[in-house]
Amino acid sequence: MMIDPDLSPIEEPFAELERRIIDEYLRGAGHDPVALRARHDAMARSLLVDAAIYASARLAEVEARSHYVRELHG
What we know:
- The chain is mostly helical and 74 residues long.
- The protein has one domain.
- It is built from three helices and no strands.
- The model has no long low-confidence stretch (mean pLDDT 87).
């Protein structure tokens, strides 16, 4: 099976938002997201895990609010 390079891969609905939240968290902690992802040390992994946990919480909040708004509008 050949993959067409002109087609973008299917992503989760909030994938881009998740990346942006993670980058925001890392910048807020004083780190360059690109440079941090290139590292392979324990501190970099720990920061990335913390950023992912933070992003998960924020995305859960976004989804909860979205469901609430849909319920309000029927």
